[in-house]
């Protein structure tokens, strides 16, 4: 056993070191990315299923690395979280999203909304250092933009271990008129009690449900139940990961309010989204 242990040690250490070194380099590069204009905000339409119109968009951050090319947020968001850089990235995302929301509300649709993602670390950050809630309010004031232009997407886990900070933050957002969406619904310990306890505006059905939608399937039954329940609690429902016309039709028939997914469009750069919005 001792021998096997030693072998394992000898075999895995270099690989682990390479991975750790890689993470360190990438984190370092991320610091530069913020200053060097390498981040971009992409937008994916959220479509009103009954009319097919684009009512909203989700803002998704992209990193164009000078050597590695496009790095996925699934790779760099965790690094941003462990290094604390997520707060600066989140601030940049907020400003960028608010600026576009202002423009699209003024020029295309006065009710247009943009949703932004917040990881638990950002959401629980108590501000007071120039990034976060006070800065958001200042920026909204400067733009003359109502909070209703923006939706913050959070995940279920946050509400499960709901601390005072979390409920305070939810109340602050509500005060500013900013709406809240529960992201990836159905992937965690979906407890429905907190939907009543907290003031949530949108529920986003995770794409793992959408993927397996078929008439009479159990995921269909679950989705229908979620939609009925959400509506009873006064929430609107957005289905994620809509890739086929069949999925869209099943969701629309089940009363789902909005759909988002490759069927309508992939996340695209702001200029492309701008054109799509003006000439659908
Ligand atoms: P998410 O919030 O669940 O975002 C939805 C993800 O699903 C996006 O991946 C989107 O490109 C992808 N998607 C959309 N439609 C479809 C579809 O029809 N089929 C499939 N297979 N996928 C679809 P993306 O852009 O790679 O983002 C991954 C995750 O990174 C996001 O998951 C979110 O948790 C995080 N993220 C992205 N931008 C930000 C940000 O600005 N701040 C924070 N904190 N997290 C972000
Ligand atoms: Ca999201
Ligand atoms: Ca998410
Ligand atoms: Ca999601």
Automatic annotation (TrEMBL):
The lineage of its organism: Bacteria, Pseudomonadati, Pseudomonadota, Betaproteobacteria, Burkholderiales. The gene is cph2_13. Residues 23-280 form the EAL domain. This is Phytochrome-like protein cph2. The chain holds residues 635 to 914 of 914 of the full protein.
